[in-house]
Amino acid sequence: MELRYATHPDHAKTFTTEELRNHYLVEELFVPGEIKLVYSMEDRTIIGGIQPAGSSIALGSYDAIKADYFLERREVGIFNIGGNGTISVDGESYEMANKDCIYIGKGNQELLFTSRDETDPAKYYLFSAPAHTSYPTKHVSFQDVPGDAMGAKESANERVIRRIIHLEGIQSCQIAMGITILESGSVWNSMPTHTHNRRMEAYLYIDLDENARMFHLMGEPTETRHLVMKNEQAVISPPWSIHCGSATSNYAFIWAMAGENKTYTDMDQVSMDELR
């Protein structure tokens, strides 16, 4: 489990391109037969990728969290961004098709991840945060979440937002999680942009082809920086940072937040005139 420390905005202003990437970009999440985890001190969240190859993979405990098992004091939201698979939670199995989501609450001990077809493996993206109580495990099929259409072709941000784990959806202690899919011809996300000092956020960009690139904007509104990203890479956004971007083609991204509340609309809007 890789450890990433929280950063002050004054410190982030001094970072080189490579330092920005080392602090905020998660470049390799999906490796056949492995679990890749990054522990961020931003609200003590864990971002991870699991790609089973052949046999099942168990998510166990790690010294960084000093727990007998992974969800002893945590909760987790998981999306499958690959082929069909199965997640077993304390012996109960849940079928996970592409873009299906599952929430698993505090206290569940045995988590097993499987791919149905090794030639088209499941790829499980997880986002975990500390939990004070236990909410029930809940699986949601992507096909069962209609989503909200937003944006317009004229502003290159026509998209559908599916809120899945949030205040009015699947219940959690502090995780809010969902997926946004941009329509063909649209490339901008979260613009006009915002911050929310009450929560950190992480984006996982998906459905980009091999040669496409995402230009993710971050930093304080008056001190913006950018990260050039590829498909299936994640970015950690501190509470003080904007988080938005544009790509060379349309794409989807999984957003996940943790912190003070689960209110999706709790955002501090940033006007275009403020951006530098």
Characteristic terms for this protein:
mainly beta, 276 residues, seven-stranded antiparallel beta sheet, 43% strand, single chain, 2 helices, seven-stranded mixed beta sheet
Describe it.
By secondary structure, this protein is mainly β. Helix content is 4%, strand content 43%. It contains 2 helices and 24 strands. The chain has helices spanning 9-12, 17-24; strands at residues 2-4, 25-26, 34-40, 45-51, 57-58, 74-80, 85-89, 92-96, 101-104, 111-115, 124-130, 138-140, 148-150, 159-165, 176-182, 188-189, 194-195, 199-206, 214-220, 223-229, 233-237, 244-247, 252-259, 268-269. The strands form 5 sheets. It has a 7-stranded mixed beta sheet, with no helix packed on it. A hairpin with a 4-residue loop joins strand 3 (34-40) and strand 4 (45-51). The model has no long low-confidence stretch (mean pLDDT 96). It comes from Terribacillus saccharophilus. It catalyses: 5-dehydro-4-deoxy-D-glucuronate = 3-deoxy-D-glycero-2,5-hexodiulosonate. GO terms for molecular function: isomerase activity. Pathway: Glycan metabolism; pectin degradation; 2-dehydro-3-deoxy-D-gluconate from pectin: step 4/5. Its cofactor is Zn(2+).
